[in-house]
Amino acid sequence: MTKRSRKDRITPEILLRAYSIGLFPMAESADDPEIFWVEPDMRGVIPLDGFHVSKSLKKTMAKNPFDIRFDTDFDGVISGCAEATKDRPSTWINSTIRDLYAALFSFGHVHTVEAWRDGGLVGGLYGVSLGSAFFGESMFSRATDASKICLVHLVERLKTRGFTLLDTQFTTDHLKTFGAIDVPKGDYAALLTRAMQSENLPFN
């Protein structure tokens, strides 16, 4: 399901409502000011009780290679997620999406997990928190394992806070190594309904 919409027709409140009923926005490119709503037939989810961390990543984390921070540099994280890389020459994060998520960040509904090293941001992720659900949006890495370690810290925090749903939108081979699965639309709707029945859980 897709439906195009211009920035001036979308508010942060509408965006939150969309998430609550199973929709999320994307853009054709970073240069396209319009967005479209997406509702996949198969939804990517990481079951929090089935999250898997490889032995090699555990060994890396034991060395504490990064200073992990939360919600200290939204602009830096979304810019990192939007930047072109060798493996990702273009992204869907346009100015409309930047502005909307910046507003949700100021409202306390968007959160970041950040990996810092030597005073610089080298990886991170951001997503939307609503009810007992966290909707992962994007991640980036400028250092080996930075985004992976951010994901591990995200899951640890979600478990501690009592979240019930970690939505990844789609699955990738990378996310599947952590336990991500594809969930049919009907089953996802049941998970989402349960999450939306909760009060907004604290992230920090």
Notes on the protein architecture:
This protein is an alpha+beta fold. Helices cover 35% and strands 26% of the residues. The protein has helices at 12-20, 55-62, 74-82, 95-107, 146-161, 173-176, 185-196, and strands at 4-5, 24-26, 35-38, 42-45, 67-70, 110-117, 120-130, 133-141, 165-169, 181-184. A seven-stranded mixed β-sheet has the order 5-6-7-8-9-4-10, sandwiched between helices. Strands 1-3-2 form a three-stranded antiparallel β-sheet. A hairpin with an 8-residue loop joins strand 2 (24-26) and strand 3 (35-38). The N and C termini lie far apart (33 Å).
Q: How confident overall, as mean pLDDT?
A: 93
What would you call the structural class?
alpha+beta
Taking the sheet with the most strands, its summary is:
7 strands, mixed
Question: Per the principal axes of the C-alpha atoms, what is the gross shape?
Answer: globular
Query: Unreliable stretches, pLDDT < 50, 5 or more residues?
Result: 1-7
Major beta sheet, strand line-up: 5-6-7-8-9-4-10
Helix content bin: 25-40%
How large is the share of residues in beta strands? 25-35%
Number of strands: 10
How far do the termini sit from each other?
33 Å
Whole-angstrom Rg: 16 Å
> Helical element count?
7
Secondary-structure element pattern, one letter each: EHEEEHEHHEEEHEHEH
Topology at a glance:
Blueprint: E1 4-5, H1 12-20, E2 24-26, E3 35-38, E4 42-45, H2 55-62, E5 67-70, H3 74-82, H4 95-107, E6 110-117, E7 120-130, E8 133-141, H5 146-161, E9 165-169, H6 173-176, E10 181-184, H7 185-196
